Amino acid sequence: MTDLTGLSESAVPWVLVCFGVGMTLGSLIAGPLVDRSIEKSAVGGVISLGLVLLAFATLAHVPAVTIACVLLLGVAGSLFTTALQVRLLRESGDAPSVSAAMNHAAFNFANALGAFLGAVVVDAGLGYRSPALLGTALTVVGLAIMILAVVTHRRARTGPVPSPGR
Question: What pLDDT does residue 61 have?
Fold first, then answer.
């Protein structure tokens, strides 16, 4: 925030408040969206995360846009995590507590891995925008995995698609 955007150090806590407000808004938005479609909400959350990270990487030099991206990152993150949690609980059968615990463990691991990979690309001399670009690339990978999971889940519920001519 201070190097790329040019904000003062005293502004950084307020940027973090914007992230928290975004997470709260995301939680409020997620409920009705997840009620309509868990999978669409999760996919929409991942796509939103990627787009916000790309916007941040591209426009980090504009303070108002950067702060908006931080807020939207909170919204998109809450939408995705809520949808994923609901999906896991729906599929967990008799073990919802184990499913929830594993989900939180996976998110903690992902947070640590993201911080590590972000440090690796900055340390490699790729600049302070590079973690957002890496995050964008990783959301594309995550989106592909999520789409594969949704398609596989739908096929498992409906059975195999018959071959043409049969």
Answer: 92
One-letter amino acid of 129: R
- The alpha carbon dihedral of 95, 100, 106, 109 has a sign of negative
3-state secondary structure the chain: CCCCCCCCHHHHHHHHHHHHHHHHHHHHHHHHHHHHCHHHHHHHHHHHHHHHHHHHHHHCCCHHHHHHHHHHHHHHHHHHHHHHHHHHHHHCCCCHHHHHHHHHHHHHHHHHHHHHHHHHHHHHHHCCCHHHHHHHHHHHHHHHHHHHHHHHHHHHHHCCCCCCCC
Spatial separation of the C-alpha atoms in residues 25 and 79, rounded to whole Å: 9
**What pLDDT score was predicted for residue 160?**
61
Give me the residue label for tokens 């949808």: 83
- The 10s digit of each residue's pLDDT in 96-126 is 899 899 999 999 999 999 999 999 999 999 9
How far is Cα 130 from Cα 136, in angstroms, rounded to an integer?
Answer: 10
Q: Whole-model pTM above 0.90?
A: no
The average pLDDT across 135-147 equals 94
